Amino acid sequence: MVRAIAILIGAGFVAVLSWALFWSIQGVITDPPAPTAVDEFHLHPKEVELASNGFFGTYDQRQLQRGLQVYKEVCSNCHSLKHVAFRDLTQLGYSAAQLKKFAADWSVKAKQFDPKSGDTTERPNTPSDYFPTVYYPGTGNPPDLSLITKARHEGPAYVYSLLTGYRDQPAALLKKFPDAKVPDGLYYNPYFANLNIAMPPPLTQDGQVTYLDGTKSTVQQNAKDVAAFLTWAAEPNLPTRHAYGLAVLGFLLFFCILAYGAYQNIWRDIKH
Ligand code: HEC
């Protein structure tokens, strides 16, 4: 008897849920939500060839140095890089003396609390300091870039596409969605999640940064180099990780061969 009641209650639940499911699906099919400007005009990041891509990927030190230069001369006016320390840049091939100077010359100084006077004073950065946080009074909130390539889907390609993706708002968009005009103070960029970004185009002309290694400085190249640099900032040990991965796979392969040999040996005289 109790069992029959339990089954009935269960069947009641299933019926109510199926009823709700049916009507919600029916609603979506007969009256689908209207497409938005984002649905139609948002673009997936472009492919970008970087040395760190793929299974065997590693970093191209010279590219990272160029990327650091782009970050320093362009992005660092607005964006912090607070999880990277100056001394981490040894991985980019700089000597201790170069880094000491680089840190000391960095325009935003390190803050220091003086316990005697209670004041916060400034001092030049040292290699063991992290990149100091940047104050940004303009529109929007520039995110810290230390982990941005991890925080966004297809990070390196996204950064590259975003930087090279600024354009005029397409007429077709306004025709179809007259209310979707780019708000004042924002810029149209189809790679940004909502199409309108508060960041003014940071790379506007070729030659904006003068490379020391002779590489031609175009907007595309600057964007690619800074994307590579930010990939490094977010994951400095990627080459080690890839090398370990390969070594482990090699070991497993070797172990498989050994195990197969052992199996052949043990079962040699036994019919099976
Ligand atoms: C004039 C200041 C300024 C400069 C220079 C600048 N940015 Fe930005 N950036 C911003 C602001 C403001 C935002 C926030 C935009 C928003 O949320 O609408 C932003 C956002 C971003 C984002 C995040 C987009 C997202 O998905 O949230 C990335 C990545 C980025 N900037 C990269 C760069 C790089 C790389 C450079 C240097 C080449 C750079 N920015 C130079 C102001 C700046």
Automatic annotation (TrEMBL):
The chain crosses the membrane at residues 243-263. Keywords: Heme, Iron, Membrane, Metal-binding, Transmembrane, Transmembrane helix. It is found in: Membrane. Gene3D superfamilies: Cytochrome c-like domain, Cytochrome c1, transmembrane anchor, C-terminal. Coiled coil: none annotated. It holds the Pfam family Cytochrom_C1. This is Cytochrome c1.
